[in-house]
Amino acid sequence: MPRRQFISGENACFNAAQVLSEQVYTYKQFDSVTDKNIWGSNTTQSVLKQSTVLPFQHGVSASAFIKAESLISLIPQLYKLSQDKTGVVIHVVAENPNSSAADFSHIMSARESVPVILCSSSVQEAYDLAIVAQAVAIKYNTPVLHFYDGKRISHQHVTIDLVDDQVLSQLLSQQELDQYKQHELEQVASSYLQYKQQQQPEQEDKQDVYQSISEVMVQFATLTGHHYLPMEYTGHVEAEKVVIAMGAGASVVEKVVVDTLVSNKDAKIGLVKIRVYRPWSSADLLNTLPRATVKRVTVLEPSSVFTHLWNPLFLDVTAALQVAEFDHVDISSGRYGVEGTDLKYGQVFALFDALAKPTVDVDYNIANLNLLYPAQGTPSSLKEGLYVVGDLSQFGDISQSNVHATFDNGFYHVRFGSASSFVSDKIYKGKYVIIGEPSEAAVKAVSELDVDGTVIFSGAEAIKDLESYLSNPLKRAIATSGAKVVYVDNVKDVFTVGINSLLSKAKALTVPSGWSQLADQESSAGQASASAAGSAAKTESTLPVETPYLKMLDQVFQDRLQVANAVNSASVWSRDELNPSASAPEYGYGKILNQIQERARFIDEVETLVKKNLVSQVVYKALSQWLLAVKSSKADVKTINKAAETVVEAVTHVPAAEYVAKNKHLLFNKSNWLIGSDAWAYDLGQSGIHHVISQGENVNMLIVDTLPYSSELEREQRKKDIGLYAMNFGTAYVASVAVYSSYTGVLHALMEADAYNGPSIVLAYLPQEPNSAAVNPLYTMKETKVSVDNGSWPLYRWNPTLEAEGKEAFSLDSQRIKKDLEKFLERENHFSQIVAQHPDISQVLDVTKRHQELKRKAREDFAKLLSGMGAANGPPLTVLFGSDNGNAEGVAKKIANRAKSRGLQVKFMAMDDYESVEELANETNLAIVISTAGQGELPSNSRDLWKALNSLNAGDVNFSELNYAIFAMGDSHYWPRPEDAGFYNRPGKIIDAKLENLGANRLVPIGLGDDQDADGFETALGLWQPEFWKALGVKDVGAEDDEPKLTDDQMKINSNYLRGTIAEDLLDESTGAIGEINGKLLKFHGSYGQDDRDIREERKKMGLEKAFSFMIRVRMPGGVSTPAQWLMMDELADSHANGAIKMTTRQAFQLHGILKKNLRSTLRNINHSLLSTLAACGDVNRNIMITPVTEIPEVHPQVQDFGMKLMEHLAPKTTAYHEIWLADKQIAGNAVQDFEPIYGPTYLPRKFKIVIAVPPNNDVDIFAHDLGYIAIVDANKKVIGYNVTIGGGMGMTHGNKKTYPRPANLVGYVPAELAVLCGEAVMTTQRDFGDRTNRKHARFKYTIDTHGLDFIVNEIETRMGTKFQPAAEYNFTDNADRYGWTKGVDDKWHFCMFIENGKIKDWPDFQPKTGLRELAKWHKGEFRLSPNQHLVIADVPEADLEKTKAHLAKYKMDNLSFTGLRLNAMACVALPTCGLAMAESERYLPTLVGLLEGAIEAAGLKDDAITIRMTGCPNGCARPYVAEIAFVGKAPNTYNVYLGGGHKGERLNKLYKESLKEEEILAEINPIIKRYALEREVGEPFGDFVIRAGYVKKTITGMDFHENII
Ligand code: SF4
Fold first, then answer.
1. For the chain: N or C, fewer Cβ within 10 A?
2. CA of 1585 to the centre of ligand 1 (A)
3. How many CB atoms lie within 10 A of CB 770?
C-alpha cells in the first residue's frame, strides 16, 4: 500500500524536495518532514530573506522554493546556472498576488533562461514532477524550473500517494548523486571544461534533454505506477476541436473533455496537456495531436499581462503547426486570469461551443466567453461543494477519505465523495458552509452560498450562545443569504458519513428576525440541500491498474468497465503460475458468457412483460424503448444506457416490474474485457483465444505482449501472430497498438473494440528486457520505438464493421514503415489472403514508395533543369555544398554552371538534401564546396550527410567507383591562437579524409579557400578549379566560365521600378518565405524576410521549412510620431507581429514576426496612419535621423522641417509601393511607365544614410553616416546653415581588411537654403561613382577612398553649383541621449525615458507598452524615438505636466536611476531574427552590462557615462566602432572587443582583443575600469584614457582601423 497523505500542493513539493536534496532554500518556513534525505545525509531548510540570488553551492544537491515575482530578478542567475549545468530544481508558485487565478506571466518571462521547465496540473502531479525534476536535474546536470498554479495547486489539499524513500533511491541512486557532485566540483576546477560544454551544439542538447525527461518519467512510472508523458492527449481519437493547456487549467479542461465523452462518445473534442514546456518539442506536439482530424486548436494560458495579444505558449504552438503546414487548422488563443478571472468548468464548455461556430475568433478572453456563448454550466455534482471556514484539522485525519480542498478567499472550497466530482476549480455557489470559526472569512463564505444553502455550526461556543458568538456582519450575511442554519456535534464525521447523514442528526437553529428582514425565507432551503448531497456520497470504485493499458481501460470506460478474468501484475507481465486458470481467457470468457446468457434471459423476460401489457403506459414506453435500443444493431452504448436510466426511473416501486428493478444492472451495456499476456499466443489453435474468436460473442480481449521484437533473432523465433490469426476469421475486430508509440492509437483501438459487436482483440505492446527480473523502462521505450519503426510491431486496426459499410477494413497507423510492414505481412501466410480479399491494401502500403518515387523524380527534374533540360551528355557530376551564409553555395553554383557549360550532366544541391550515403557511392564524380562555421563546425545544411558518412567504416559501402574533389572555405586568422589552428577549413578537411578512407578516389588535392588571401577564397579557387576541370577531362572544352550574372543593378532594372513579382509571391501560400529576388526588392519597401534562428535546427530535423516571418521598418524622419500613430503601431504589434515594438538605432519603428499572409494588411494599416515603410531599407536614402531634443528648443522644429523636406525630396517616386500594398490592382505597372527623377532605374549602389545633428549633442553619431548635417544656429536661435560631413560608415567583414568602418570627413558649410540641393548632390555623386560591381565595396565611404576626397568634393560642388564654405565652429559634448525632463517652446516639456535596447513590450514588473498606450490616448504632443533607442515624450503642455509625471511614475517609466554605463549602452537586434548574426546582442548586452556594473560601482564610476555597444556581427547596426567599448559578435558567445572610440562619437575605436568569451571579457575589462578610476585625468573620457594608457592605439581614419593593433 502506498503511503497516503492529505497535503497541499506546495507542501507536497517541499516534502519531495527535502528527501531528494541536501539543501532547500525557501521563501517561507515550511514544516520539515525529515532531517535526512534518502541517501542518509542531512537535509537543511534555509529561509531566504530575499530571493534575488539563490545561494546554491557547488557540489551540493539543492532545490529552492520561490514566488513567481522573484523570478525576473533571478534571470541572470538562471542563465548562469544553465551555462554551468548546475543540477538544481527551482519550484515556483505561479500566482499573482492580485488575482485569484494562476498567472504564468513571470514564468513565461523566464522561459528562455532555463533549459528545463516542467508544469504540474494537480497536487499529485506536483509532488510527482517535483521528484522527476530532481532526478532530471541530478542525472543530467541541468537546472530545472518546476511550476504550478498558485491557488489551485499550491494551496489545494488532497490526499496523494507518497513515494517511499527506498523507491526514490532506485530512481536516483547514491552513485548518481556522487557523479553529479564530482561533475560539479570539476566545473569549479576547470574553466576549460566549461568552454567545452558551451561549445556543444545547443540544439542537440535540447533534443537530448527532452528525451532524458521522457526517460525519467518512464522510469518513475515503472517504479510508482504514476504515468506521465511530456505532452499528453485526452479525448476523442478523431477530435476536431482541441485545447492545449498547462497547469491546473488543463485539469479543468480535462474534466470537461472526459465528462463530455462519457455522455457523448462522439464528441470530437480533446486536450493536449503540456508538462514539459522547455525544451519545447514541436515534433512531440504534432505527434500528440490527433493530426488527421484536428481542425481547431485553442491554446489556453493564464496571464495577467493582457497587453500581449499572443501568449508564449500560443506562439510556440502556432509556430509548430504553421511550419508543419497545418494550414487547415484554425488556431486561437484563450486567455484566462485576465483581471483575476479564473477558468471555470462551464467556461470550457462555452469555449468548445465557440469553437463549433463557423468562424473562430483568434483571441478569446475566456471570462467573456459565457457572455458571448451561453455556457452549458457546471453540472450539479460539481456545484454541491462545501465551504469550510477554519482549520481542516477540525476533521481529524482525513487522508483515507476522498477530499479535495482549495484554499481561496480565506476559506476552503471542499469537494468530497466521488473522485468524479473533483475538478481543479474552486466552488462557485456552494451548498454548505461549515463554520469552524466566526471570522471575516466566514462572512465571505456565507455570502458565496447558493440560495438554498446550509450554514453548519459545531462546537460549544456556537451552541451556547450564537447571538454573542457571531459578529454582526456574519449574522447579517447569514440572514440575507436565506440559508438554513443548523448545529451538529459530530462535524468531524462529515467526510466519512457524508453530508446527508450528518444533516439528518443536525439541530436546526433559528435565525432571529432582528438579524435581517429576510430571515423568514429560509424554509425551503433544507430539502434541496438534502437531495443535492446524495451524489456526493458515492464512493470511487477502485480497479487494479498496474499497467498503462489497464489504466487506459479504466480511463476510457470508467463505470462500464468489467474485467472478467484475474488481473494483477503477475498475470499480465508474466504468467500467473500460482493460479493459471484464473488468468486464462477461458476462465474470464466463462464468466462473460454467463452474463451474456443471463442478460439474454433478462431481455426475454422484459419482452414478455411488454407483450403481456401488464404495466402502466409510462413503464411500457420505457421498456419498449429500451428493448428497441438493445435489439437494434445500430444503437450505440450511449442510447442503450440512456434508455436504461429511463427504465430504472420508471420501474421503481412498480410491483409488476419488480423483476426488472431487481435486475436493473442487466439493463446497462458493460464493456467486457479479458486481459491476457502474450503467453496466450502459444498453441493458438487450441487456445482459449481460438474459442473466444470462433464463438463470435461480444467479448473484448486486451493482450499485452512483452516480447521484444526488434532483433532479427526474436522475430525469427516469434510465436504465432494472434492478430493475423484473428483477422483470418473475418469477424473479429483486431488492433495492434503500442502505448509508448501512440497513446491516442491505443485509445482509438479500445473504443473501437468496445463499439464492435463481436469479438475484439487489442494486441498491446509493452516489451520487457529479456532475462531481467526488474522492469527497465528505458528498455521498454527504446524497444517500442525500434520495433514500431522497423515494422516488427506494426500498428494497425482491422475493423469488419467498416468493411460492411463498403470501406477499407484495414488501416495502418505506423505510417513511416509501410514498406517494412508489407514485408512483414508477406512473411505471414495469411497476408496473401487479405490482399486477395482487399486488393486496395497493396496500394495503401505503397504510398511511401510512391512518395519516394515522386521525390526522386522531382530531384531528377531539378537536376535536368540545371543541366539544360537534359541536353548535356557529358560525364555526370554532382555538386554538393554546405553553406550557412550563402558564400559556399554561390561558389558551388558557379562550379555547377561552369560544368554545365562544359557539357557535364550536373546535379546540384545542399549536402543534406542529398538522398543517402549509399546513393553517394553510386555517383561517378562528386564536388563538395563547404564553408566553416563557428569553431571548425560544419554548416547546418551539411551535418546530416556528414554524420551518415562518418558513421561508415571502410568496406561498409563500396566507394571505389566514386571520384571526388573538395573545395573548403575558411579564414586562417579567424581563430588566431596556435592551438585553434585546427579549426581552419576543418569541415572540408575531414570530409576529404573520410572519403579517402572509405575508398573513394580523390580527383585533385583539397582546395583551401582563405579569407586572408589577397582575393579571399578566390585566390585558392583560381588555382584549384583548372586542376579540377583537368581531372574531369573538360579543361580545354571551350566554355563560358560564368553564365551572365544577374547583378543587383540588373535585378533592379528588371523589377520595373521595384515591382518584381512581389504581388504574386505574396499570394503563394505554399511557403512562408518569399523568392530571393523579391526578397531583395522587398527591402526597398521596408521589409526583410527572416526566420527564427532559435528553432531553425529543430525544424530542420523535423524536415520542416524554417519559421519564416517578416520584419517591417517604418520610415519616420527624426523618429517623430503622433499619438494616433503610436496607437496604430501598438495595435499592429499585438495583432500582426510578435507583441513588441522595436525602436531601432536609427529612430525607426520595427515590427518583427509578421507572417507573410499578414504583410499586406500591416503595411496598409501603417499607411492609413500616415506613416510609410517605403525606403526604410534598400539601396536608397533611408530614414533621416535628427536630434530629437535640442538644447535650444526653438531649433528642433527647424531641423525637423528640414529633415522632412529632404526626405520628401530624396524619396523614391515609384508607384509600385502604392500598387502592391495599398491599391487592390496594378495602377501603373506596364501601362504607365514609372519615372525616378533622382535614382533612375538602378537606384543607388548600396544603402545611404543621412543624419542631422544639433550641437552640442552628437546623439545621431554624425561621423558614422554617409551624409551628415551639423546645424549652425545664430544668436536669434535660427538655423542659418549646416556643416556637412560625408563618407562615414560602420559595416565591415571579419578578417577582410578591405572592409572597414570609416569616420566621416567634414567638408564645409552650406547655407540652409542650399541644404536640400547639397543632399541631392552628395547622393547622386555616390549614385554615379559608387562601386556597382562589388556590394562589399559599394558604400559611399569606399567611393571616397577610391576616388579621393578632393575629387568627390569637387564633384558635389559641381552638382550643387557652388563651393562649400569653410566649416563653421561647433562643439559636441557627447553622443548620448538627453535623459529626463527638458523644457521646449511655448511652455511645453519633453521627457526622455530609458528603454533598454529600444524594446517596447510589457514585462511583469515593467509595463511600458501598456503605459505608453494609455498615455497615447490623451497625450497631446509627440512621441520621438531617440538615436540611442530610447523614447522622448515630447511637447507635453504645462497643463498636463503633473498628470504626465504621475502617469510615467505609475508605470515606472520615469526611472532613470541606472548606471552611466547602462544609460549609454546600445545593442543591435541580432539573434534570433537577424540572418547575419553570429552571436547574441540585444538579448545579452543587458547581462554583460550587469556583470560589468560590479566593477564600475566598485571603482566609484556609477554615474560616469561610458559608451558601450554590442552587435551580433561586424555589420555594425548599433554603431559599435564609435563606442568607447564595443563588442562585435564573432561566433556564439564569442566577441571581438574594441576600445578607444571618442566619447563624442568623433573617433573610431580599435581592436583590443579577439574572440573573447564572457569570463575573458570580464577579466580584461574590469581591471581597465579600475585603472581608469584611479588614473584618469580630470574630465578624461574612458575612450581617451585607454589610448593614453596604451591599451590600444588611436585610430585616425578608416584605412588605419586594422593597423597598429597591439
Ligand atoms: S549588426 Fe549584424 S547582427 Fe546586428 S542587426 Fe546588424 S546585421 Fe544583424
1. N
2. 28
3. 11
Ligand 1 centroid to 1088 CA: how many Å?
A: 13
985 and 1008 in contact (C-beta within 8 Å)?
yes
Question: What are the residues whose beta carbons fall under 8 Å from the beta carbon of 1024, sequence distance 6 or more?
Answer: 967, 1004, 1007
Mutate to test the pocket of ligand 1, among 1468, 1471, 1538 (most ligand atoms within 8 A of CB): 1468
Distance separating alpha carbons of residues 782 and 759, to the nearest angstrom = 32
Those residues whose C-beta lies under 8 Å from the C-beta of residue 358, and which sit 6 or more positions away, are none
Instruction: Check if the beta carbon of residue 383 is closer than 8 Å to that of residue 450.
Output: yes
Residues 6+ apart with CB under 8 A from 1366: 1308, 1309
Burial of residue 1178, with CB atoms counted within 10 A of its CB: 0-12 exposed, 13-18 middle, 19 or more buried: buried
Residue 204, number of CB atoms within 10 A of its CB: 12
Could you list the active site residues? 1113, 1182, 1247, 1249, 1468, 1474, 1513, 1517
Tell me which DSSP letter residue 776 carries. -
Helix or strand (DSSP H, E) at 374: none
Dist CA 874 CA 1088 (whole Å): 41
Q: How many CB atoms lie within 10 A of CB 1233?
A: 9
Provide residues with CB under 6 Å of ligand 1.
1468-1470, 1474, 1476-1477, 1481, 1511-1513, 1515-1517
Tens digit of pLDDT for each residue in 187-197? 544 433 333 34
Kindly state the helix (H) or strand (E) to which residue 303 belongs, with its residue range. none
Residue 1305 or 663, more confident: 1305
Strands 296-302 and 23-26: unpaired
**Among protein residues, the one whose CA lies closest to atom 6 of ligand 1:** 1517
In tens, the pLDDT along 581-620 reads 455 556 667 777 777 888 888 998 888 888 887 788 888 8
Given a cut of 70, whether residue 1440 has pLDDT beyond it is: yes
Query: What is the C-alpha separation between 960 and 290, in angstroms, rounded?
Result: 47
Of all atoms in ligand 1, which is nearest to the CA of residue 1477?
3
Please tell me the distance from the alpha carbon of residue 416 to that of residue 429, in angstroms, as a whole number: 16
Residue 605: φ, ψ to 5°: -60, -45
Distance 392 CA to ligand 1 centre (A): 60
* CA proximity to 1472, closest of 1093, 1140, 1110, 1107: 1093
Cell output for 734: 483486431
Q: Which residues pair with 910 in a beta bridge?
A: 881
SS3 assignment for 1289-1321:
ECCCECCECCCCCECCEEEEEEEHHHHHHHHHH
Q: What share of the chain is helix, strand, coil (3-state, %, to 5)?
A: 45, 20, 35
**Alpha-carbon distances of 941 from 930, 938, 1092, rounded to whole Å:** 10, 8, 16
**Which ligand 1 atom lies nearest to the CA of residue 1518?**
1
Residue 242 CA to ligand 1 centre (angstroms): 40
Q: Answer for the pair 1262, 1268: CB distance below 8 angstroms, yes or no.
A: yes
Angle CA 201–202–204, to nearest 5: 70
How long a stretch of residues is the chain?
1606
Give Cβ neighbours of residue 589 (< 8 Å, ≥ 6 apart).
564, 565, 674, 688, 691, 692, 699
Q: How far is CA 873 from the centre of its chain?
A: 50
- Neighbour count for residue 578 (Cβ, 10 Å): 9
The one-letter amino acid code at 346 reads G
Q: Using DSSP, how many helices (H) and how many strands (E) does the chain show?
A: 60, 55
More confident residue, 318 or 460: 318
Closest ligand 1 atom to residue 1474 Cα is: 8
- What is the distance in A from the centroid of ligand 1 to the CA of 1142? 14
Residue among 1506, 1411, 1426, 1415 nearest 1458 (CA): 1506
User: What is the grid cell recorded at 1329?
Assistant: 561613382
